[in-house]
Specification:
single chain; 339 residues; mainly alpha
């Protein structure tokens, strides 16, 4: 009975002692968590992000509840994002989503994950997540309104990076018009001015390119025209030179025949009459063109180069006729003088 009484006496004392020890341990853990968490917060405000991440990680390890762990892990992620450790941030985001899928930080993680995708160059994925965040966010205070405006701004940035400037301009204009108190208003206005400038540059570049191409075409046509004129002029000059040479040859023949006729004695009258008859016979043998009214001029050779051969024959025939008439007149005048 005495042993039973002793056991019944010490059992409550043991339970009280264990309860007190557990309470002290919980109190110590809670104090350590608060200290680590506050240290991380101070370091984060001082932009000492790597040290802040270490303190928040220690706070996460000493956290005694899911809410405390999710809060510490959330700030670990923000610190990692601040010093651009995107790989570690993505891994911790996945851990937070698994351990606390219904935490109040889950929705903000959509926004931060989109920021990571944007910084890594996955603009389409980032655009999808920013849109998803905006659809799930309610503007209940200025902070949430600023975050939503920032999401619209980054959607514009995604489209701008993809080269869709006109679509991006709509999001920037929406931020300026809908959220005039947002910190992203100035950046959005700058992007709008930049897009307008790019439009002007594109139009000027297109106009300059068109003008350059038109100038090249005009220059090529001008060069072709000059070459055509030069070739035509050279051809006309060669033909005029040929006609001049033919005219000189005929004049030489005419002068030589006249000189010989002047020197012939009267005793060679029969021979001259025979030469005249032979010339007249040859004249009759030459086939005339269908229509010959008069000898063509040099201008006709120049303006109608395709008829040069025909006109040249007509010119020679006419000159031959004149030569025959001159010979006849010379012979007649000599015969009249001899008599």
């Amino acid at each position: 009975m005495n042993m039973m009484d002793k056991r019944s006496f010490f059992l409550p004392l043991t339970l009280v002692f264990l309860f007190v020890c557990a309470g002290d341990s919980f109190t110590q853990d809670r104090a350590q968590f608060n200290r680590r968490y506050q240290n991380g917060t101070q370091l984060y405000k001082l932009s000492r992000f790597q040290e802040a991440a270490i303190e928040f990680r220690r706070a996460q390890e000493t956290a005694s509840s899911t809410n405390e762990k999710s809060a510490a892990l959330y700030w670990v992620i923000l610190s990692q994002l601040a010093y651009s450790d995107f790989g570690s941030a993505i891994r911790d985001m996945e851990m937070l989503e698994k351990t606390a899928p219904n935490s109040p930080y889950a929705r903000d993680m959509v926004y931060h994950r989109a920021r990571v995708y944007y910084n890594q160059g996955y603009f389409e994925d980032a655009l999808f997540l920013f849109n998803r965040y905006n659809q799930s966010t309610v503007e209940k205070d200025q902070e949430s309104a600023n975050r939503k405006a920032a999401a619209f701004f980054w959607m514009g940035e995604c489209l701008f990076s993809l080269g869709q400037h006109e679509e991006a301009e709509k999001f920037y204009a929406w931020v300026v018009a809908k959220y005039p108190d947002s910190p992203k208003v100035e950046a959005s206005a700058y992007r709008i001015d930049l897009i307008k400038q790019k439009k002007i540059e594109s139009e000027l570049l297109a106009l300059l390119q068109w003008s350059h191409e038109e100038a090249l075409r005009t220059s090529e046509d001008y060069q072709k025209t000059i070459r055509t004129y030069e070739n035509t002029l050279n051809m006309y000059q060669r033909r005029i030179a040929e006609l001049s040479n033919n005219d000189n040859v005929i004049q030489q023949i005419n002068s030589q025949d006249f000189y010989r006729n002047e020197q012939q004695p009267a005793v060679q009258q029969n021979r001259q009459n025979g030469l005249l008859n032979s010339i007249q016979e040859e004249m009759e043998i030459i086939e005339e063109p269908e229509i010959i009214e008069e000898a063509p001029s040099v201008d006709e050779y120049v303006t109608e180069p395709e008829d040069v051969h025909f006109s040249q024959n007509s010119f020679l025939i006419e000159r031959a006729r004149q030569l025959g008439n001159n010979v006849r007149e010379i012979l007649n005048s000599e015969n009249a003088g001899g008599r």
